[in-house]
Amino acid sequence: IPSFTVSPAIRDKLSRLLLDFPEISDIKVEAATFQKLVFDRKTERYKEAIEIAAMLLLNYRPDIRGGHNHVLAILFDMNELWEEYFYRRLRVALPPGWRIQQQARAVFWELKEAGQKKIIKPDIVLTNPQGKNIVIDTKWKTPEGFVPSDDDLKQVFVYNDHWKAQYGFLLYPLNEPGNRFVPKSGCYNNARLSSHCVVAKIDIINREYENGGYLHKAFINPFMEYLCALEFKEKSNEAITP
C-alpha cells in the first residue's frame, strides 16, 4: 500500500498503520469469498467497507445499466481529480530548471475601506528556466471543437495578465482514438502584453488493450515537448507562433 503514494508523510503513516494488522497468509479472492460472509449485530458496521473492498478486489465498477450486485454509489469531483492527477504527472515529468506551483493565489481586486478582497488562483503556474510563466487551467469537460466558453477565455486572460504570462492553457480531456495531444493556440487582441490562450486536448488513456483502456503513464510527454518548444517575445505585442 505505501507504494501507491510519493508522499513521505503518508507512506510513513501507512507503514505504521500496517503494524496494527496481524500477519496472515495470502488467499485467492473470488466472488464466493464475499458471499460466504455473514453479518450480525456486531459486524454490520463493517458491511459498507467490505462491499467497497469486494468491488475493488473483484475489479467491479458501478454501471448505470444495472448488474447482479448492489454497490455503493461513489461520486468524485472530476474537476478536482483531473486537476490533481495532471498536476502530479506534470510535476514528475518537469525537466531540470522548471518550477511548478499548484493553486497559486493572488489578490486581483481589493476594497480597502471595507476590508474586502477577491482572490484568483489558477490551477497550475509553471516557470521555465528563462523565468517565463505559463498558466494552466484544467477543465473536465469537452468543448465543441476548439472554441472554449467566454468565461473560460476571460479567466485565462486575467491569469495571463496578472502573472505576466505570454501563454495560458485551457486543458481538456481528449477522447479521439489515434490522437494523443492536440493544441490550438489563439491570440488575445489588444492585450497589454503579447498573450495567448492555447486550447489543448490530451488523451490519458492507453487504448492498446482489447478489454478497455488503462491510464497511459507517458501521456504527459507530448505536452512537455510542446511546452519546451514555445517561443517567447521580449516586451512585445507582436504575434507569437508556437
**What is the molecular shape?**
elongated
Strand content: 15-25%
Number of helices: 6
Mean of residue pLDDT? 85
Cα-to-Cα separation, first versus last residue:
42 Å
Helix content: 25-40%
Task: Report the sheet with the most strands, covering strand number, pairing sense and barrel closure.
Answer: 6 strands, mixed
Structural class: alpha+beta
The topology string of helices and strands comes to HHHHEEEEEHEEEEEH
Low-confidence stretches: 236-242
According to DSSP, the number of beta strands is 10
Rg over alpha carbons: 23 Å
Instruction: Trace the largest sheet across and list its strands.
Output: 1-4-5-6-8-7
Description:
26% of the residues lie in helices and 21% in strands. The protein is α+β, with helices and mostly antiparallel strands and 242 residues long. A hairpin with a 4-residue loop joins strand 2 and strand 3.
Describe this structure in a few short sentences.
This protein has 242 residues and is α+β, with helices and mostly antiparallel strands. Helices cover 26% and strands 21% of the residues. Strand 2 (106-111) and strand 3 form a beta hairpin.
